[in-house]
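Sanity check

After download, print the first record. It should look like this:
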Amino acid sequence: MSKEIIELNEDLSHSDLYSEDLAPVPKEKRTWSMWHLAALWVGMAVCIPTYLLASYMIVAGMSWLEALIIIGLANLIITIPMVLNGHAGVKYGIPFPVIGRSSFGINGIHIASIVRGVVACGWFGIQTWIGGLAIYAIYQALTGGTVGPELTLGKFLGFAIFWLINMFFIWKGTESIKWLEEYSAPILIAMGLFLIGWGWNQAGGFGIVLEQSQQLANPSAEWFEKDGRTYFQLNSIKDKTGKNKAEEYRIIQNGNEGNWTVFSDQPIAINSGKPDDIQVQLRAKKGNDYLVSSKATLSQRSNDAGGIGAKLWSYILWLTIMVGFWATMSLSIADITRYAATQKAQVAGQFIGLPGTMMLYSFVGIFVTCAALINFDDILIANDAPWDPVSLLAKFSNPVVVVIAQIFLLIATLSTNIAANVIAPSNAFSNLSPKNISFRGGGVITGIIGILICPWWLMDSISGILIFISGLLGPVLGIMLADYYVIRKTEIPLAELYKRDGIFNYSGGFNPAAIVALVLGVLIALIGYFVPAVDFLYNLSWFTGFIISFIVYVLMMRNKT
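Expected structure tokens:
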């Protein structure tokens, strides 16, 4: 590859496509080292979703080691396009929306960048609400109150305070973001190691803790048929000696609660009704009171049919899901790498920071949850396992522990929100009208949209929509990498990216090849969503969309440059 850093040698300040925020970063201002970029990834990757990742796979029947290997492999895979797409950011010092003008056209890039930006705005709102709840929890711990599920004025005040904290860093600019990530990274790593130490110390051994992971894979209650009759099996959590923690159970059928009966881990016959109508609860006596589990619905016992092929396919599906976790970030990584001093710094920083942190904090989630099974008496079934840190903190009564832990949660949420959910949409909105919307202005728009989505009401449904959209953004990355590496051989005429009448104006500012490739890539994935016979196209949407769009774009562009 040619010269590592290219600078703009033409005055384009008069162009409506140019602004100081979107202009190439001067060489003297590219101050981010390998460790700054690694710290940035620590700050982004340490968040509640990362903590929860392995839980989904373990509940689906995988071992903790299988889950961890898939997470590590997925993040190694996604780091490759992250580094490849970050190359242009380092070489030309420009953000994602400006680089995208090369492939999509000066107007076409708005399609990709605004979709990417809106996804980030949604996550910004969700993360800001979570941060606000942490502030509210600190207040309640200090005043002796409790945090209930209902919406209160205090929760909204916490949300407003955390929103303003985010706005402060946006207003101060990228240097303040670098400072935030640099100093939060060691704190967050220390927090992870502390949590592992807590679990090990309380349980009395490292191996003892990890042995509990199999209990998390067992359904709390499952039904099966044998010799023409229907039975259900209760799976109580066992303590570290192997003794069932539950002492009694009761059946709840069609809303009618039965009598408490001495617990048995032997199959229990269903004498009337259907498994769908039945729930069960377990309890154990503690002092003069009882610890009662949540209600568990009976799930049908799996016969593990399918063998090695089915197991391999489940690995591939989970690998795709884990790759999609940072799929949107791989599009806009140049927003960050444009501040890197060298290509070596961005490559090493990303490979050091991303896969390692994701594996560490996924392991923290596994280890601490397994430790909680034997450290807290009130966890009687797998359904009650405190997979997320908020549920875990609720089990501590010491206000000092709660406050310190919530401060850590605040730092983790803030560092993730600023780097992952603010920079990209700020640049995307700024690119809509560079002369009128600055990076700060784009950040304010991001913050306002984060309020308008009402995350306190729509958090679960919005999350599902955002994940769905993110899975369809593989084609955008395929098009950008095809353009940069195959069509242009990493050589972009930098000044042309800022000219309204330049070579990237294409047909009214839209590159037909990119639009066709994008539509085909998304459609192929959606066909799999609506047609069960080819559902693998959707299940592997990030890969299928990426490959289809990459190939189509190259074929359509190879004779046009």
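If your output differs, re-run the checksum step. Summary of this record's structure: The beta strands are 221-226, 229-234, 248-253, 256-257, 261-262, 268-269, 278-286, 289-292, 296-297, 299-300.
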